[in-house]
């Protein structure tokens, strides 16, 4: 089991901002996950990978793919208090889910 | 309501690694939080701040303080598959809780 969190590299987010957006995505997709998958993922140490996306359109394409694979997922928009315009899409979390299915969606992306 | 996630700056973690550890801490402390506080925090947009700690001893001091304030908290140790030695303490999440109480614990730290 793993969860993949995909981050836009084109926004120039600072490290703390980026980490907060990743955590936001992770928690939101987790909340969208069934009890059995949650438990299995946590039992294995809640494996997470953080990956790079080029921009907004890629985030939406990946979210569509996650939807078609039946994986829990969450697209995060920034509230815009700092650094970014309100509503800017920053991150996508996919899973937790079976590694092989998560890889169908995010397997081609580079590690952040 | 907010959650503060405190990161060691002395480990030289890469951005993706750091973000994954922050997400891990955030979710672990969230799971340790009562239903009412969870709901209130999410209703307000799950505010998170990512802060800097100098090293391991500061993480443990802050965790002790969170314990005394009755705040949910989680100290994260890395599994050590990459970059760090197994068991290395990387992050601490405090809250979600009332902002004024979280600030009693982490209010003196700098934003990451």
UniProtKB/TrEMBL annotation, chains A, B:
Its EC number is 3.1.1.29. Gene3D superfamilies: Bit1 (3.40.1490.10). It catalyses: an N-acyl-L-alpha-aminoacyl-tRNA + H2O = an N-acyl-L-amino acid + a tRNA + H(+). It comes from the Archaea. One of its GO terms (molecular function) is peptidyl-tRNA hydrolase activity. It is an enzyme of class 3 (hydrolase). The keyword Hydrolase applies. The natural substrate for this enzyme may be peptidyl-tRNAs which drop off the ribosome during protein synthesis. Belongs to the PTH2 family. PANTHER family: PEPTIDYL-TRNA HYDROLASE 2, PEPTIDYL-TRNA HYDROLASE 2, MITOCHONDRIAL. This is Peptidyl-tRNA hydrolase.
């Amino acid at each position: 089991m793993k969860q993949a969190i995909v981050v836009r590299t084109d926004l120039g987010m600072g490290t703390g901002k980026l980490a907060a957006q990743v955590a936001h995505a992770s928690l939101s997709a987790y909340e969208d996950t069934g009890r059995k998958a949650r438990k299995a993922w946590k039992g294995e140490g809640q494996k997470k990978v953080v990956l790079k996306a080029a921009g907004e359109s890629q985030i939406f394409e990946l979210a569509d793919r996650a939807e078609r694979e039946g994986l829990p997922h969450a697209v995060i928009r920034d509230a815009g208090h700092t650094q970014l315009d309100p509503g800017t899409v920053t991150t996508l979390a996919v899973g937790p889910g079976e590694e092989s299915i998560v890889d169908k969606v995010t397997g081609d992306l580079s590690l952040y």
